[in-house]
Amino acid sequence: MKLASKISHTQFELLRAGVVILFMLGVFFYVSSISAGLEGSYLLIVAALFGGYMALNIGANDVANNVGPAVGAQAISLGGAIMIAAIFEATGAIVAGGDVVSTIKKGIIDPNLIQNTQVFIWLMMAALLAGALWLNLATFLGAPVSTTHSIVGGVLGAGIAAGGMDIANWGKMGAIAASWVISPVLGGLIAALFLYLMKHTIFHKTNMLDSAKKMIPIFLAIMTCAFTTYLCLKGLKKVWKMDFQTAGIIGFVICIPVLFFTRSVIAKAAESMTNTRDEVGDLFTIPLICSAALLSFAHGANDVANAIGPLSAINDAVINSGISAKASIPLWVMIIGAIGIAIGLALYGPKLIRTVGTEITELDKPRAFCVAMAASITVIIASQLGLPVSSTHIAVGGVFGVGFLREYLKLNYLWQLHVYNDQLEDKDSKAITKLLRTHESASIDEINRMFKKLKKNRKKLNLKRKELSRVKKIYKVELVKRSALYKIAAAWVVTVPASAMLAALFYFMIRGFYIN
Questions:
Q1: Are 291 and 368 in contact (CB under 8 A)?
Q2: Helices (H), 271-299
Q3: Per DSSP, what are the bridge partners of residue 101?
Q4: Contact in structure between 179 and 186 (CB atoms under 8 Å)
């Protein structure tokens, strides 16, 4: 049995490697054919291979944040999530990815200090390869990281290697460094806020079904407004650029019919349901699938085109023999990016999808819904405040946010139940004692129901702070895996410097190869 399993695993690894090799060969032969007779065509071919490698790693790592929570909550299967993400990522990249891109991502280096076209091409090739290699390593380690930060670090490191320290825009880099904190904290707070509201308006009510019929349509209307505004500002900005007011009005107008439509749909669905958390949570299944698709589309339109920007910059430099502030994005570059993302996601994406969906904290459908809400609302808020944020950090921060809220609520209720228990002598005391003994397997809802029952007749307590601290320590629970927290946080912090150092090394290697 073990031998058969080992052979099966080996065959699967060979299959994955074979598909990747076929994709890279396809890129090689296609770019060779379209660049035949072009001076410097060999540079374009090598850059295209680096771009294809980058696209594979974007699919393997960055896309997991869009579908991971829905998979972890079992709203959709892993295979279904991969199919949806691949289709919408590719569609977003090709349809709404735009026709031009900045040759210097985020303005982090000054291109005026690089007058030599050959040096510029080497710089971009080094940045592309470094960003892709770092994403590959992060995927291997199971750490979801930012594609944008990876390529930014690559451009920074190669830029400094080519033009010295003065070439860098350190103000921009400071803003990017700030996003390491801003993105996950803001995403976590918003996700936790929605989960808290959901608990107190639906899941902590005696009749959850009646509460769900009133409140879920409101949550879905808010989600519709947020996602519509998000798509208008980010996903479609290269097709139709609009200001926040216009996007917000469109979002509000669309959410009104959604509110009335979902009221009747949810009321009808609730007729065949029982008053349990799991069944009420199932009402979020379709919204979660839709949110995964929309987040993937926006990611494909917004982030993927930027990630393959260096390839477009190299193509522009080779064709025009010069350095432009803006470079056109040929359709073949978009297709390489779109196909590469789909292949990388299908072959290597499941590892990161599981990391985001199941290995940080336990997600159910309402919690995953709150993460999706945070992903769209945080980007909207941050863009209006001019704050630099990462969609990857926001989504993962949202997962941590709902996990830490659950930890806080469970601890808060357990230690107070312990204190109340000392003053009771009836059957409630026995029930509490049983709950306290099995608190690690008890849900927050079970604890909350008992807690609400006791609060009606609780007595004034007069305990010393030291005693309260001791009781709290007894019932401290960890619903967020600390190992995942430390690993992911460390990967975020080192992404820019790691890709920068790799890019500087690759730049010197590439320059040395061509000079010699």
A1: no
A2: 277-281, 285-299
A3: 327
A4: no
Count CB atoms within 10 A of the CB of residue 123.
33
Q: CB of 504 within 8 A of CB of 143?
A: no
- Decide if 72 contacts 368 (C-beta within 8 A): yes
Tokens 């619903």, located at residue: 479
Structure tokens at 232: 């208008």
The span from the CA of 322 to the CA of 316, in Å, is 8
pTM: 0.84
- Dump pLDDT digits (tens) for 226-243: 989 888 887 666 667 788
Residue 335, both tokens:
């297709």
3-state secondary structure of 38: coil
Is 188 in contact with 397 (CB distance < 8 Å)?
A: yes
Buried b (16+ CB within 10 A) or exposed e, 13-26: eeeeeeebeebbee
Nearest 10 degrees: Cα torsion 387, 226, 355, 408: 80
Are 288 and 369 in contact, with CB atoms under 8 Å apart?
yes
- State whether residue 293 is helix, strand or coil: helix
- Which of 48-52, 120-124, 180-184 has the lowest average pLDDT? 180-184
CA angle 112, 116, 120 (to 5 degrees): 80
* 136-140, 267-271, 314-318, 474-478: segment of lowest average pLDDT: 474-478
Which strand (E) or helix (H) includes residue 31?
A: helix 2-34
Query: What is the rounded CA–CA span in Å between residue 38 and residue 261?
Result: 57
Q: What's 412-472 look like in SS3?
A: HHHHHHHHHHCCCCCHHHHHHHHHHHCCCCCCHHHHHHHHHHHHCCCCCCCCCHHHHHHHH
Q: How many CA atoms lie within 13 A of 279 on its CB side?
A: 14
Between CA 324 and CA 65 the distance in angstroms is: 33
